[in-house]
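Table S2 (text version). Query chain:
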Amino acid sequence: MTVDLELVGLRKTYPNGATAVEDVALTVEQGEFVSLVGPSGCGKTTTLRMIAGFETITAGDVLIRGKRINDMPPEKRPTSTIFQNFALFPHMTVGRNIEYGLAARGIKPAERAERSRRIMEKLDLLDIADRKEAGLSGGQRQRVALARGLVVEPQILLLDEPLGALDANLRRSIQNELKLLQRTLGITFIFVTHAQSEALVLSDRIVVMNRGRIEQVSRPVDLYTRPQTPFVARFIGRNTLVAGKLADAGGLIDTPYGPMRGIVADKLLRTGDAAQIVLPSEALEPLRQDANNPASHSQFQGNVLSARVLTVEVVAHTRLIRAALADGREILLDGHVGHGGGEGLAPGDPLLIGLRPEEATIVAAEQP
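Corresponding structure-token output:
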């Protein structure tokens, strides 16, 4: 498989001494859809801008198809960037906006017109080719921005929060179009977003960043079900982390609620080390009232917590139970109506919570 993008020890430090990106290393294969996620200020947009050439690189290298491009100006790089505000020229028609990048690259008018026509046809824009920005809907603006980025036939398309300005329904619609387009064209996409759900739906792999560094790079399902660090466990999904001490490297941890079992994600953990067990809200099962019989929850292998119901909320087919553990700590159970033992629960009711060991993850203790 061809490697389209390689980041080697990438670092960005500003003149005031603030470091935005530190020692970022990443390899992206041709045709991958890779998303960068993390809290504001984590370095994801700075990383994207260094790839695009809009931000100087303090140290490290950016390579595209094996060629170092650190000092190459943006317009010479085999990349194209789409921004959150789309950055369309209001005085130009849709067709002229799409042709702009080709003109900047010195492409002859006849070829510009043909390439522009082809991409407008693919994105269903031909019937609005003569309109200006003021006459376009949000979805049309988004498609024009995509067309302008794709018409130059980049090896890599860089997308910086491109759906952030759209309403929820339009955003979901464009997500579907974007994924289908990327699969059809086979172009590598590097996508920056604040929306976890967006990254989980669209990406082949997700890069989680924190304080300028990469915390984890995984497929969406692995990232969601098997976080490797406390930060990722707190950032992705709705998990409860319980601190304890690793009693057995095979996955037994002593906690304030008794011994629990899970999968050890951090291979550096050793018996006796401080650790945490991650309890995903979707994997927590409310047990029926007869669950005091140990035989009725043997599949949980001791991962059973006593609690008291605080609130029960039903949203469509989802039931959210907020409960308090024995020490008062709150925990959330996120399940489907009609499944498990949560039917008929009301605030104040006693509750047992089960978690299968294979759905729990053990990570290192929180760093001070």
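Notes on Table S2: The two ends are 41 Å apart (CA to CA). The mean pLDDT is 89.
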